[in-house]
Design brief:
There is one protein chain. The chain is α+β, with helices and mostly antiparallel strands. It has helices at residues 2-16, 34-52, 56-64, 73-84, 89-109, 125-147, 157-166, 168-174, 211-218, 236-242, and strands spanning 115-118, 121-124, 183-188, 194-197, 205-210, 230-232. The protein is built from 10 helices and 6 strands, in the order αααααββαααβββαβα. The longest helix is centred in the middle third of the chain and has 23 residues, at 125-147. It is globular, with a radius of gyration of 18 Å.
């Protein structure tokens, strides 16, 4: 769980330096300010703790309250934030910090291969930890961008890029598309090392380029056309359009 803890520590450093007005700065998450983004992270960390503890449905019900059943995951998380939106930014910060610490402890105490409930179905505790790493990285970038900070890319992106690669079948299925065959990622790390993700069978589509750019595209924060990523094969365009790191 060291990678997740390190990512959370980076966000904590940014949050600790914010002035009161910074918490109300708009972010690239439509309709959310910095406080809303941190509240969303606190809520979803609590949901992950519930998942790891066998209480996913119970915690989801507590967070949703009496809101109407959502039409989509995005609608659901927006409703949860709207329901608990608060002017008490110190309380939001404390809630996120407590949950972040508890999440690392709970995930670290479990067997990484254990299957648990999550938004898109069942996954392993190990994969749940990686999804939390990815979401923390995404929203730390949202906060940093809102307040004029710059996040340095780290080798923790390897786990996020691998998650994006491994969940391509889910991304295609969610969009009602069929993959033509296996996909390979051949990426360059922030330090210049090669990160190759190769399927067991021969890849019919290959994506090459910067791991940081690939992660930004998978986070839906960067337009593939604005990157130097390149694809070869029948699914190249759709991979870059559909790749993602979250449910």
């Amino acid at each position: 769980m060291g990678e997740l803890a390190a990512e959370q520590a980076g966000l904590a450093t940014i949050l600790a330096g914010l002035h009161p007005a910074d918490w109300r700065r708009p972010t690239r998450c439509d309709g959310w300010d910095v406080a809303d983004v941190v509240l969303h992270l606190a809520q979803t960390n609590e949901l992950a703790i519930g998942s790891a503890s066998g209480r996913f449905d119970e915690v989801l019900s507590e967070l949703a309250g009496d809101t109407a059943p959502p039409a989509s995951v995005d609608d659901g998380v927006a409703a949860m934030v709207a329901r608990e939106r608060s002017a008490d930014v110190a309380g939001v910060m404390a809630r996120w910090s407590r949950g972040a610490d508890t999440l690392v402890s709970v995930l670290g105490a479990g067997d990484g291969s254990t299957r648990v409930r999550w938004v898109a179905g069942e996954l392993s505790l190990r994969t749940l930890a990686t999804t939390r790493l990815a979401e923390t990285w995404i929203h730390a970038g949202d906060v940093a961008g809102a307040v004029g900070s710059v996040l340095a890319d780290t080798d923790r992106l390897r786990l996020i890029a691998r998650l994006a690669w491994r969940t391509l079948p889910y991304a295609f299925a969610s969009a009602g598309r069929a993959m033509s065959g296996p996909v390979a990622f051949r990426l360059v790390s922030p330090t210049g090392a090669r990160w190759d993700f190769e399927p067991d069978e021969v890849a019919v589509t290959t994506i090459t380029g910067s791991a940081a750019e690939l992660c930004g595209v998978a986070a839906r924060r960067v337009d593939p056309a604005a990157t130097a990523l390149r694809g070869d094969g029948p699914d190249a365009e759709e991979v870059l359009a559909l790749v993602r790191t979250y449910a």
